[in-house]
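Ligand-bound model needed. zinc ion.
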Amino acid sequence: MPRKTNGNGGHNGGHTPTDLLISEDQHPDFVAGRVDDGSPQAFTPVPDGPIPQPPPLGGPLPFPRPDLPMPGLPRPEPFPFPDRFPPINLCAAVSGRYRLVQPVIGPVLPGPMLPGPIGRPVPVPSIPLNLMRMTVRVDVDRFFPQQRISVELFNLFPRRSSHVIADVTSDQCLGYNNRRVTATISYRDGDAFPGTTLVFEARRTTGLRYGMYRLTVSGGGAVTRSYDLEFESTYFDSVEFEIDRVSNAGTPVTSINTGTHPNRPADLPVETLELTTVYQRAGFAAYYSPGANVIPVSGAAANGTWSDAEMHNAMVTHWSRFANKPQWALWVLFAARHDQGRSLGGVMFDDIGPNHRQGTAIFTDSFIQDAPAGDANAAAWRQRMVFWTAAHEMGHAFNLAHSWQKALGVAGGGPGDPWIPLANEPEARSFMNYPFRVSGGQASFFADFRFRFTDSELRFLRHAPRRFVQMGNANWFVNHNFEAPDALPQSGRWKLAIRPNRAQNRFAFLEPVKLELKLTNAGSEQQAVEHDLLSDGKHISLLIARKGGKARLWAPFMTRCERHEGGSLAPGQSLYGQHFAGATTSGWLIDEPGLYQVQAAVDIDGDIVVSNVLEIIVGTPAGAEEERMAPDWFTEDVARVLAFSGVPELARATDTVRELVERSPASAAAIHGGLALSSPMLRNFKVLGDGDAPELKVISADLDAGVKAQIDLLTKAPDKAAETLGHIDYFGALDSLATTLKDEGDTKRAGDVMTKSVATMKARNVLKSVIDKAERALARLK
Amino acid sequence: MAGVTDGLWGVVLTGTVTIDFQEGFTGDDLEIRAGHHVVARLNPRTRLQTGWAGRSEIAADPGDTLVIALPDTGLETRFAVPADARYILVNRDEHGLRITNTEDEPGYL
Ligand SMILES: [Zn+2]
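Prediction:
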């Protein structure tokens, strides 16, 4: 946690621990909340809340955070007439970072489709699902409020992210700790975030403090949605500074007493600021790393001055936290001098390697030591200038440009392009402006300098898409998968179940795991849903984790249709789909013996519906032969051959499949393999015939062999085939076999296949509607 | 030009001026000319973190005329070396090349 006083990890800039940092409640730049004129809503009860009482008189106001009282605001005391409490609404500060409340993914008991214990109560907690992550940054009070709300949204599926910034249009304190902030979206990065208007509400519930936070998004034709939030921090992000020094660079200046130099704003609060304080007031939970190092001068070249490359090497070697990845951490080096000479006071040197902006340097033997001739307190001037330089170079690491470079534009988002159109601020009294560059020079600069960033800089630091700001400069979610168990609250309108097509949740070692999804309208009204929602993998997210391992995301090998298929389900009605969950486009997810957990989710028009967690057991190899075949079998190409029911072009994988079918003919995997080998014989050689009325002809010489293989495979041991292929694929295969035979004019065998199909369906308690459909198809054959 | 006898080799340096290239340079060829002579060639490129693109020390006396040109872009500007400033600062923006000067060595941060 950021420290309020100078616990600076050993970088004591010469002051003592008793030096003063003005507490927030006493600081003139701190806005502790909001007071509005009284309204009838003040002290009105909230649901389940206490009987409202006015704050007690004659003492401190009972703000919900005792550490954050409200100085500087008109206090309703002392009251001349204590019995007539003035109508005044008080709301404590709400600025800070919030995130979506984690839902409780409750047990789901899927209705049986097969006899037997196929669905089990869900173990809780489930696989951590990170289907949607939302971070909300509210910036209406505390230090230097910018009147903005920004929202970061990351959806797992469709996989996309979005970032919006909204300008506050109204901020109301409607009653005691009943705050409502309305804002209009003015900036968008990504298109996943719907709506145009944000309303942030903070209300007390059962006590005097805020107990409920909510963000409502509306407008722009989007469905109005509310998200319950939880408070995370009064800061917008956390950042760690490691301050290392070269042995000849002197003691790093990491703090400054704002009152030691006489040239300063007359009303500047006199206090001792740490570099961390500066960044805390800019909105970061900034803290020093305890791992501060002293670096030998030998890291530099023989002349003792530093090149950028040498500093980069020193960073890699000496920075405790160095990693080539984005992280909220920054290396600050105090060195004596740069190769460029005395004219370089500091530099954010890190534009080397794949991740920039991780390191920054201050040169203590440079022009920043040159106090103006005749300065009233040269030592204090130098101290302030070094402190200023450190904060400046660190600002570059946060991707801040110089004040006069703000409008710099390079077409096409090249280096130097601002994140939003910005105006130059050549006269800004900011850490990002050169003091000697303003009109009137450094004396004029420091006369108005308040140890802060400008508003536009603060808006960037607090609200720009985080990849623009975070050190290492990359998208924050790149290395992020399922670590954070954030997910959405569920509407309860839908129920999703995932299950295998068998009585026991047990699969053989090489068996491709196919799982069935069932989506049920759990509401009381007819609901619209695309009919291919479960059959087309693009709508589905599956997480698969071997017990003790990481959850991995499944993606389908193919998605079927691009157009939206309308449809709806009556209450209690269900949709079904089946997928080859054992493998994904990058290879097999279920390829070792052991216990696996699988969880599914679908996105129904923004309503994320999460399934039960299915546990399945994968058995050990049935013998040395299976063990030997495993490395060849569990390849991406074999997965592809199985997923597409045969890909003759993948000759090597097809050979592997053939070998397995020959060597392990009784295995479940052999049924999948047999289907993959025989299906191309039925489908690959369909061509349009010649003549005036072209007709589809199957010219495959292998047709008979294919038909025979499939009849054997599918009808001789129908239960075994249905169990491993899953009902949807099994009956689909029979249907397509019958269709091929019918097309060939062999209605006799087509009828036999369908008769077998219907009988198996009945034996396996398949839905009556499915059996009826099959019987109708059979009737047409006769 | 001070110290230079036109057409001959004999050169006597009587003064120097430091030219700092600052904002707006992207690595294009740049020439500094005195009279008909190119006295320096460089390819300054602004480093945004510091606002500095490069430096050139030129032998010149107050009153001498120098030309800074970016031949590939057609940009060119000429100026007289001032009497009271050792440092010439060159910035490039949408209006072209802008020349200022200062007595103190410019610093970068
Ligand atoms: Zn700088």
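The radius of gyration of chain A is 34 Å.
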